[in-house]
Amino acid sequence: MIDVKGLKKTFGDNEVLKGIDEHIYKGEKVVVIGPSGSGKSTFLRCLNLMEIPTEGTILFEGSDITHANDRDINLMRRKMGMVFQHFNLFPHLTIKKNITLAPVKLGLMTQAEADKKAEDLLERVGLPDKANSFPAMLSGGQKQRIAIARSLAMNPDVMLFDEPTSALDPEMVGEVLELMKQLAEDGMTMIVVTHEMGFAREVASRVMFMADGYIMEQNTPKEFFENPQNPRLREFLSKVL
Amino acid sequence: MGFVDSFKQNFIEQDRWHYLANGLGTTLLITFFSVLIGMVLGFIIAIVRFTHDKTGKMKVGNFICRIYLTVIRGTPVVVQLLIIYFVIFASVPISKIFVAIIAFGINSGAYVAEIVRSGIASIDDGQFEAGRSLGLNYRQTMISIILPQAFKNVLPALANECIVLLKETSVSGYIAVQDLTKGGDIIRSQTYSAFMPLISVAIIYLVMVVVLSHFVTKLERRLRQSDRR
Ligand SMILES: Nc1ncnc2c1ncn2[C@@H]1O[C@H](COP(=O)(O)OP(=O)(O)O)[C@@H](O)[C@H]1O
Ligand SMILES: [Mg+2]
Fold this sequence. Notes:
- The structure holds two protein chains of two kinds.
- Chain A is α/β, with parallel strands linked by helices.
- Helices cover 39% and strands 25% of the residues of chain A.
- Chain A is built from nine helices and ten strands.
- Chain A is globular, with a radius of gyration of 18 Å.
- By secondary structure, chain B is mainly α.
- Chain B has one domain: Orthogonal Bundle (MetI-like fold).
- In chain B, 80% of the residues lie in helices and 0% in strands.
- Chain B has helices at residues 3-12, 17-55, 59-74, 77-88, 96-121, 125-133, 138-168, 180-191, 195-223.
- In chain B, α6 packs antiparallel against α7 and α7 (138-168) runs antiparallel to α9 (195-223).
- The A-B interface holds A 48, 50, 70-71, 74-78, 80-82, 84, 86, 88-94, 101-102, 105-106, 134-137, 147, 150-151, 154 and B 124, 126-127, 129-137, 140, 144-145, 148-149, 152, 225-229.
- The complex binds adenosine-5'-diphosphate (ADP) and magnesium ion (MG).
- Magnesium ion binds next to α1 of chain A.
């Protein structure tokens, strides 16, 4: 589904990604872990071209998006949902409008269809009574569940999560992870950057360790956590577990 | 001379109050249309400048905008008014009021532009990214997500700019436009009494400013609805 070849990304003279070759298959749940500043966000953001790779190519569903025009990039992004650490809900719009804005503006649904979809999604994320609230009235956990609903409104083929629970108070982490687990069970292809090792163990089909701009090691969660090979990974795991 | 006599002399005799009434109309007319021009110009310039800073596109547009901003903000509005009237429109038979509208509109645009630009810049980058990641293009993201928030943030500053402009139009007399200030001054020159006409003019400006400020505060409160916790 996503094919990454020789991906490099440099900011100024700071080489953040130093050559990544990776394939992500439909239905996979890939969890990316690694120390802060290792390039996890940059990797994720290169996948939907929020950052333009310095070198390398990315194929999404067979087409090269690194050399696509703006229009095709926008079409690609509809199919790649992204969930941010800080939610980035639109504070000036109601929850329902947050969810329906993109599908309506892009002409994918009428307002009525989108409203119906929003109601279904709000039901699904467990916040059916928040349709007419504004983001500022919600807790962090609720905001993130709405952000996920907003992405789902576009019917994406893959969802990218960049530390979706890192900005949350501990008691709200569970509700968001639970929702992500449901999504995983429903078959969504997911790439998740997180520090939640429990989630990685339970939900991931594959766990990657990123450090110094490379994917240093990857494996099934069981092998990854029980039998880490790379010394950097062992050290990292000893700190976080 | 008592208050009543002075009032009669300055406003009632020869229907001198017409100078104030017509002058007020002219002042409001000039302010209204120059605010419109200023807003349109200001938003366009702010968007060009922001787009340049954000994407590196629109190099020429950005360059022109910067010259415009430097010139307009670096020279007095009276001088701009005089130049536009006596130099640019010198050989064109044209309404003085129209010239004043153009001059104050162009002047205000520069200040509105910087206000709006700071408003756009104050919006968290995450808003932009959220819009783009949903597949909205640059334009759609600006129009649906960034500009409404930026507008809300700078509304008090914009309203302030309107109020400043309302008062600034009082120099229209330099090109012999009979606005409110000029109206009061004409009465003064006819009756040789300065207090009554000039204080009246001041009070009329003051009332307008106070009413306008009150209206803005109300509007702000309504817009803040979405920020309620
Ligand atoms: N827009 C940017 N401009 C310059 N440097 C950046 C930018 N984004 C990220 N970086 C740098 O890239 C490195 C990796 O950042 P990031 O991908 O956010 O790491 P992680 O998500 O793993 O913590 C950091 O050193 C960071 O300073
Ligand atoms: Mg990060």
